[in-house]
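User: Structure with zinc ion, tokens only please.
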Amino acid sequence: MCLALPLRGEAPRLAQPIDCTLGEDCYIQNYVDHDPGPGYADFTCGPLSYDGHKGTDFALISRAAMTAGVTVHAAAAGRVTALRDGMTDGVFLEDPAAVKDRECGNGVVIDHGEDWQTQYCHLQKDSVSVTKGQSVKAGAPLGRVGLSGRTEFPHVHVSLRHDGKAVDPFNPDGDHACEEMPRRTLWQDPAPHYRPGGMLSAGFSDAVPAYDHVKSGRAATVHLPADAPALVVWGFAFGGRPGDRVMLEINAPDGSRIISHTVELENPMGLFFRAAGKRRSGSAWPKGVYHGQVSLQRDGQHLGTQHTTVTIGP
Ligand SMILES: [Zn+2]
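Assistant:
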């Protein structure tokens, strides 16, 4: 017997609101918070959320990707009822008070009728390409992913509201059954796949890189001199949980293993990186292409691997 309730007031079916491939050049960092108390939980009961979060955060893997330009699209047809542009990207990182009451940053609100609305936040300064009152089709470009308002990483925050209340498109009935594949979503088929964590990028460097360089996409080098003081491989990842294992490996041009190192996480981490490497022992590294590999594992399950190479030589 089917006990499903009818859809509430012509709920829109949402298209992916960002021009990227989930699991490749973007991922979902946070979902709507389903925990009514001071804790937080995404619709699977996992920790990819934070207290009071009312939307879905589609994130890019680096600030370099943001600078290259990634379009934000209307998730469904409707009319633009509000927008803001002109706020500088990255201000929150330097002066959190500067975004007070303007947490969304540069953003767009679309009315889909029947009291359904979507809102898109943190767009790049001067990128908003629609006007107030404009009718848009599903998939219409609205602007570009940025870092405006209250955000520390490049992403578009998309919230869905009905009668002014937040609705999780992954679990619109709010039954919070802790399932990764809810019975009904408000996404067009196929709904975005839930990833409980994974690798975002990996690279080589001659020292443990600054975290800021990892996040910005500037940490990796593809070429090192033979007298580089050390050979370090690092991996950038999201959704870490205590007990997760990060496995880092470097293989020499002749295929021999230079390092194989496992780090266990002690704390939950939304975004993090780990690095491992070896100091030069002789006067020079053998020339050639070195292969690096960084994987994330949870309870024996593989959550992702990133491969990277560096060429050592003149
Ligand atoms: Zn958000």
